[in-house]
Structure of Rid family detoxifying hydrolase:
Amino acid sequence: MSKQIIFSEKAPAAIGPYSQAVLAGNTLYVSGQIALDLAPLGDIEAETKKIMENLGHILAEAGMDYTHVVKASIFLKSMDDFGTVNTVYGSFFIENPPARETVQVGKLPKDVNVEISVIAVK
C-alpha cells in the first residue's frame, strides 16, 4: 500500500514531526487541528470554526470534502464548551454526520481550547 503526504498551504503547518494528513489508499487520516492561525485565542466558537475551515482546506487538498468524513475526534480543554463546539461542528455536517467521540483532556498544544482530527474515505 502506498501513502501520500497531504499538505495545504491554507491550513497551519505541523508544529512537530507529523504531517497535516496522510492518504493511504482511499483513506485520509487528518492530524489534530488547532486554531494556530487565530489570535487571540479564547473564543471557543471562533476556534472551532477556524479548525473546521482548516480541516476543509486539508480535505480539499486530497480531493475530498466534509461528506467524505467517516470519523471525528474532538478534544476539549473544558466539557463546559461542548454545546458551543457541537453547534459549530454540526453546521459543517448537515446530513449523515460522521461517527465521533468528544473527550475532555488536561491540556492541549499551545494552550488552545479545542483540537479536532478526522478520518475521511473517498
User: Anything to note?
Assistant: The chain has one domain: 3-121. The CA atoms of residues 48 and 85 lie 6 Å apart.
